[in-house]
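Field log, afternoon session.

UNIT: design team B
ACTIVITY: writing a sequence onto a fixed backbone
BACKBONE:
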């Protein structure tokens, strides 16, 4: 399907430089093959939606959801690396009662590949 999309471009030198997608690994792998020079970014809306859904599945109290999701929003809206590191510490400090959720967020969204 991506090859068909690529074929819609009139010139090879006018291909997308940035592609935003959700974290479907097959799609991400295909994007690297079909559009190797494009930067693949993850969609913040879909990431937050997935984190919110997982949070509500794994956490039993709505009060806990609110605190964790507020810390998550703060983390992803960090304006620089130093602020990110500070907010990451806060986020990980909030989550120990829910190790499955914390591992999901870390290994799915925060771990640098």
């Amino acid at each position: 399907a991506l090859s068909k999309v690529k074929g819609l471009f009139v010139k090879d030198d006018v291909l997308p430089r940035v592609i935003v997608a959700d974290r479907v690994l097959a799609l991400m792998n295909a994007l690297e093959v079909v559009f190797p020079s494009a930067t693949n970014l993850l969609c913040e809306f879909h990431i937050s939606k997935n984190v919110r859904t997982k949070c509500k599945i794994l956490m039993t109290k709505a009060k806990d959801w609110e605190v964790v999701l507020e810390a998550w929003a703060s983390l992803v809206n960090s304006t620089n690396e130093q602020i990110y590191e500070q907010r990451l510490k806060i986020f990980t400090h909030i989550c120990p009662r829910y190790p499955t959720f914390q591992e999901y967020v870390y290994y799915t969204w925060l771990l640098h590949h």
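LOG NOTE: Helices lie at 2-7, 25-34, 44-58, 62-76, 81-94, 99-110.
NEXT ACTIVITY: expression trials, pending approval
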